[in-house]
Amino acid sequence: MRIKFLLTLIIITSGYSAMAQFKWPENPEKRSDAQTKWTLFSDTEKAGNYDAAKGHLEYILENYPDLSESTYIKGISIWDESYENGKTDAEKLKAADKVMSLYDMRFKTYPDSKKENIGRQANSAYKYYITDAAKTQYLLDLFKLTYELEGNEAFYSIGRYYMQTAVLGYARDIGLTDDQLLDIYNRCTEHIDYQIKKAKSQGKSTKSMDAVKEFVDKKLADLNLIDCDFIVEKLVPQFKADPKNEELANKIFVYAFNGGCTDATWFIDAAKVVLESAPQYGVANLLGSAYLKEKDYANAKIYYQKAVDIAEDNTNKGKAMKQIVLMERLEGNKAEARKLAMASVEIDPTLKEEMYTLIGDMVMQSNECDEKKSQVDDRARFIVAYDYYLKGGNQLKASQAKSYFPSGGDIFTEGKELGDSVTVGCWIQQTVKLQKRPDQQ
Description:
about 450 residues; Serine Threonine Protein Phosphatase 5, Tetratricopeptide repeat; 21 helices
């Protein structure tokens, strides 16, 4: 029976070795002791008997601290469970401190593990200590180290927790300066922007990440640290001296946007650098709107077209293209406006009524197309407008257009008949079937 037990133990421990890379002692007695203690620890942990498992854990940590990294992984899990189920603050604090010490021991024993797992420790520490003012600097140091080791590949929630801790540290007056807080904000923003871009490139949802970005932005805005004077005095001179500095341009863009300083020339210049370095629909659309406000239609159309090209969903594409349509109409480019209006409907069918109504309105208002040689020919454009209104489902305007159709008398006088083809020239260039006003019998 003893031989069978030993064989079973060897099989079990060799299986663990294959999975967890165990470092068994060379001394036979210590090896046997380590194997036995590990089996007891693992079995009690798996069975959920954590109190018993903790005793075996402490024995292994004291006698065989480099036995396996699994010792620390399981130990952290056990003590985190104790934190979650702790009935008193003292019990929770004891569990939290134990988890942190296990992380520290793990990283000391297995240094290579730190780069991949420091973020886990930071997240756990935030959960345990965020309400403890005395631990604020400890948390800030952990998050800073997380970014130093894991960079932008850190889990996306790190930015939320780091920013929240920084804001609390600022309120708790731990000596955090405005510039330090802004540096933390910039680091969190760089991280979440990277994660959003990465997720989009992989076709994944960014909803949770967008929420983190919104949270981080709001936290900074709520502090009222930055106003237009701050940007003008501290950042704009630097930007003018180095107008291609993407990082500085992004700071100016974000701060000015949050502070409502978006009318200044320096903001537009910064936005252009941001758009060039990291094309975003919102930035292109904002630039288009800024130029539209100044009635600089040439530049407005350039940036709205960029917005169309960048947009990843048809709703945004349609919105940007609609703005181009409206500008073409304002400039009197009716044929181009019609072409783009119909293209926008192809992109976003929800624009159908608005765009076909717009085309119908342009036709209705094109008095310059009347040759004033034939009442019937000149009024045929109202039939064209009527058809566009019907395509857009605008029955009211279709009825109004119909009231301008040629009269039966004019049709008869000009020797024409209902149903004859009439071509409307000018920019309209369409042929319609002749109809008469509804009040004519």
